[in-house]
Amino acid sequence: KAGIIFLQETHLRNANHPVFNTLKFPLQFQAPGTSKAKGVAILIGANTCFQHLDTQVDPGGRFLFIKGELFGEKTTLASIYAPNEGQLPFLNTTLTALADFAEGHVLIGGDLNYVLDSTQDRSRASHHKSPQRGLPEMLYSFGLTDVWRLQHPGER
């Protein structure tokens, strides 16, 4: 039973079109993509006490920031979909914009298109390019943590 859902690759082109037509998620925010690609959204459930205060939308459909009060606590929600290449400059710019916009607790959901530890996070060798140097350090400098890896340190 999710209270908040962070979506990427929604492939929606119209910001006025609901992501899902359901009463279970009455608050729906989105940054539509520029074509049948990209697009992010944040859905907030009917039983989740959230008061919306402000929104920042990427016109290219790569990120969406929502500021509000979540159960009475100032909170900023961010859905981020990084490109397949050039993650370092994209994330540096996007996370800087998020830091400028954010208030209170910050929750990020997304697809950064990056593997922090290829020995643990890939099931087999891949033909992907070498990881960009400096990305783990940059994420750390913004105070970001891979929560799944923190909770499951030895799992694949």
Describe the model:
Strand 4 and strand 5 form a beta hairpin. This protein is α+β, with helices and mostly antiparallel strands and 156 residues long. The protein is built from four helices and seven strands. The chain has helices at residues 87-101, 118-121, 135-141, 147-151, and strands at residues 4-8, 27-31, 40-44, 50-57, 63-70, 73-81, 105-111.
Runs with pLDDT <50, length 5+?
none
- Shape assignment: globular
**Biggest sheet architecture:** 4 strands, mixed
Question: Could you give the count of β-strands?
Answer: 7
Helicity range of the residues? 10-25%
Structural class: alpha+beta
Whole-number radius of gyration? Answer: 16 Å
Give me the strand/helix succession. EEEEEEHEHHH
Termini separation comes to 24 Å
The percent range for strand residues is 25-35%
Number of helices: 4
Give the rounded overall mean pLDDT: 86
Spatial ordering of strands, largest sheet: 4-5-6-7
Structure at a glance:
With 156 residues, the protein is an alpha+beta fold. 20% of the residues lie in helices and 30% in strands.
Could you name the key traits of this structure?
7 strands; 156 residues; globular; 30% strand; 4-stranded mixed beta sheet; alpha+beta; 3-stranded antiparallel beta sheet
Strands, helices and their partners?
Layout: E1 4-8, E2 27-31, E3 40-44, E4 50-57, E5 63-70, E6 73-81, H1 87-101, E7 105-111, H2 118-121, H3 135-141, H4 147-151
Parallel strand pairs: 6-7
Antiparallel strand pairs: 1-3, 2-3, 4-5, 5-6
